[in-house]
Amino acid sequence: MSTDINFLLKTDEESLKRRKRIKILNAIAIISLIIVVSISLGIFVLIQAANPLSIKNEQNVVLGKISQFQTRQAKLFAVNDRIENIDKILKIRKDLSNTMNELLAKVPSGMSINDFEIDDKSVIISGRSNSLYAIGEFINNLSNMAYQKGIIKSLTLNSLSLDLSSNTYQVSIKSDL
């Protein structure tokens, strides 16, 4: 074996200078990083110290606006729900105005209506006339409607009377719809 083998590298001046430069650059990089971080933290702390109330106020204003829209949204939801329910009811409900108009069209000219009560199941009509002929004609008109089973399903004569003081006949009729 050879005793002349040296495993250590020879250090020359140029490699020593290069290592010193690298160490100096590393130190400068670390120091500049520390300076940048400390300046950033300082600026952040100054901003927070100078404007803590403005950010809180702005946050409160935004939260107030959001809550205002939430109440409007709740009201809008309630109104839309009511409209949908009303629409469902109107679809199920009978059109009583057409029924009323058809029944009133059957009233002869010599008769006047005193009381007219209508709901979704029945109608009660009370009227008066100077002659029995007009009342008979009215009853016949309603009877024909009951036979046709169009609007009226059944017809009941509740009362027929004579008012001697005014010399008029009064009639009350109930019809099932």
Structural account:
With 177 residues, this protein is an alpha+beta fold. It contains four helices and four strands, in the order αααββαββ. The chain folds into two domains: 34-90; 96-176, General secretion pathway protein M, EpsM (Gyrase A, domain 2, 2-Layer Sandwich), CATH 3.30.1360.100. Helix content is 60%, strand content 20%. A hairpin with a 4-residue loop joins β3 and β4 (168-176). The protein is rod-shaped and about 150 Å long.
Q: What descriptors fit this protein?
A:
single chain, 4 strands, alpha+beta, 4 helices, Gyrase A, domain 2
Helix-strand layout with pairing:
Layout: H1 13-50, H2 52-92, H3 96-105, E1 111-118, E2 122-129, H4 132-148, E3 154-163, E4 168-176
Antiparallel strand pairs: 1-2, 2-4, 3-4
Strand tally:
4
Rounded to the nearest angstrom, the radius of gyration is 50 Å
Strand arrangement within the widest β-sheet reads: 1-2-4-3
State the low-pLDDT regions, or none: none
Mean pLDDT: 85
Summarize the structure.
With 177 residues, the chain is of the alpha+beta class.
